[in-house]
Write a structure and sequence with these properties.
With 200 residues, this protein is of the alpha/beta class. The chain has a single domain, classed as Rossmann fold. The chain has 6 helices and 9 strands. The strands form 2 sheets. The chain has a 5-stranded parallel sheet, sandwiched between helices. A 4-stranded antiparallel sheet has the order 2-1-4-5, covered by helices on one side. The longest helix has 18 residues. It starts with a strand and ends with a strand. It binds adenosine-5'-triphosphate. The site of adenosine-5'-triphosphate has 11 residues, from helix 1. Keywords: ATP-binding, Hydrolase, Nucleotide-binding, Transport. It comes from Syntrophobotulus glycolicus (strain DSM 8271 / FlGlyR). InterPro entries: AAA+_ATPase, ABC_transp_ATP-bind, ABC_transporter-like_ATP-bd, ABC_transporter-like_CS, P-loop_NTPase. Belongs to the ABC transporter superfamily.
């Protein structure tokens, strides 16, 4: 299965063009690293790829078709700040089961303790909360995962733990993985291909 941005252009309102006639494609078998200096449009591109925004021109295609307009999106985006990606007024069990059902085995494999489900988001550490967000993104219909600077705010031990869990899930479920990072060493370690937007 292929995820593709075909000749897309995008700008916020009447602002400058962030992406102009831009092409990107990756296969489900790939783990692609996307690197570029701050402000180059990495987060904008992944928002478009996951269907959170639409390009002004061009198309986002999954296996040659537009992303579904309703229901579960097979391209799931995980953000840098997990606390901004969950509703602070919902207990974690409600957040987790909002989009799709998540099986117990998956929770266990992500190191999520059942008791945590009864807690509020601010009662978990950043690393624990990020694991929730990853588990939430791993619905049965997910085909591509996009990780947008997901470990930047975490200490190195928690970073290693997060990537171990995530890469195991990607391998087991044969998901495509797109990793947005400023960390070239991380990209080289986990990715099968690296795209440098600055060099494009
Ligand atoms: N909601 C928005 N409204 C207006 N401009 C925006 C918005 N979000 C981002 N931008 C602008 O779009 C450009 C690209 O931003 P984007 O966040 O995609 O870059 P990035 O490469 O992910 O940067 P970083 O590495 O710092 O996260 C920046 O100039 C930014 O100021």
């Amino acid at each position: 299965m292929r995820l593709e941005a075909r000749n897309i252009s995008f700008r916020y309102g009447k602002g400058p063009w962030i992406l102009k006639n831009f092409h990107f494609q990756m296969e489900q078998e790939e783990r692609v690293g996307l690197i570029a200096p701050s402000g180059y449009g990495k987060s904008t591109l992944v928002k478009l790829l996951a269907g959170y925004a639409s390009p002004a021109a061009g198309e986002i295609l999954l296996e040659g078709r537009p992303l579904p307009k309703k229901g579960y999106c097979p391209v799931q985006l995980i953000y840098q700040h997990p606390e901004k990606a969950v509703n602070p007024r919902w207990k974690l069990k409600d957040t987790l089961f909002e989009g799709c059902s998540v099986d117990q085995e998956l929770l266990k494999s992500m190191g999520i303790e059942e008791e945590w489900l009864q807690r509020w988001p601010n009662e978990l550490s950043g690393g624990e909360l990020q694991r929730f967000c990853i588990a939430r993104a791993l619905g049965a219909k997910t085909k591509f995962l996009i990780a947008d600077e997901i470990s930047t705010m975490l200490d190195v031990i928690t970073q290693a733990q997060i990537w171990t869990y995530l890469l195991r899930a990607v391998q087991e479920r044969k998901l495509g993985l797109l990793v947005v990072t400023h960390n070239q060493a991380l990209a080289e370690r986990i990715c099968t291909r690296i795209i440098d937007l600055e060099a494009k």
